[in-house]
Amino acid sequence: MRIDIITLLPELLRSPFDESIIKRARAKGIAEINIINLRDFSTDKHKSVDDYPFGGGPGMVMMIEPVYNCITHLSSQRHYDEVIYTSPDGISFNQHIANDLSMKKNIIILAGHYKGIDQRIRDHLVTMEISIGDYVLSGGELPAAVITDAIVRLLPGAISDSGSALSDSFQDNLLAPPVYTRPADFRGWKVPDILIGGNTPEIEKWRFEQSVRNTEKKRPDLLLGKS
Ligand code: SAM
Predict the structure, then answer these.
(1) Closest-lying ligand 1 atom to the alpha carbon of residue 130
(2) Does the C-beta of 87 come closer than 6 Å to ligand 1?
(3) Mutational test site, ligand 1, from 136, 138, 142, 146, max ligand atoms within 8 Å of CB
(4) Which domains does the chain carry?
(5) What's the pLDDT tens digit per position in 171-183?
(6) Which of 39, 67, 151, 174 is the most exposed place for a label (fewest CB within 10 A)?
(7) Degrees to nearest 5, angle at CA 156 with 148 and 150
(8) Quick check: CB of 167 below 6 Å from ligand 1?
(9) pLDDT-derived band of residue 164, with 50, 70 and 90 as boundaries?
(10) Helix, strand, coil percentages, rounded to 5, for the chain
């Protein structure tokens, strides 16, 4: 899968993709992540990418021309399944959206800045708008990193134990069960006996029950299919 991220701050995005699972997925060729500097597509001699808003008011707006040039250039080389704009007023990102996006071949993620992007980019070039939560961040780089991480860890081969990502929270609308590791007894705080007994079907049953209990307690909306 190929993910092209269009940004004004390429350096901000380097380290999240150069560690752990994402780094290995890139090294294995499972995910190709390209960080594209929007300023390279400005035709202005000062490499400007923003301008004052029509109608006045505070803040700057990302201009349409560099974004159009960038997306047109990329799209002339391959088809993109989605052009995603990260935005506080987009659809709320969740595991289902991550699952869907992980099936795509090529996607673009456009990270916004300032007061946002010229509305005509959203109307004519963007196919999907995603929010990572009801709060406002300074730019779209962290949302782009969050979305990319959630997608890449689902790609076959990205995690060495292929079942691991599928047993995480939110798959099947359940939260994950508790996990433990050695020592089995730490200052009298004991690991549940069932996990030490070696009876795999019983362990699986216990984990499922714990998942349901955890979800009932912390996120009952998931069990009602409201999320
Ligand atoms: N004026 C915009 C508004 O009120 O919705 C906020 C602009 S914000 C300062 C700059 C950029 O950060 C946005 O264009 C968007 O790309 C990104 N951003 C901020 N918060 C976000 C969120 N919760 N989810 C996704 N992207 C976000």
Answers:
(1) 25
(2) yes
(3) 136
(4) 2-152 (3.40.1280.10), 169-223 (1.10.1270.20)
(5) 889 999 999 999 9
(6) 39
(7) 20
(8) no
(9) confident
(10) 40, 20, 40
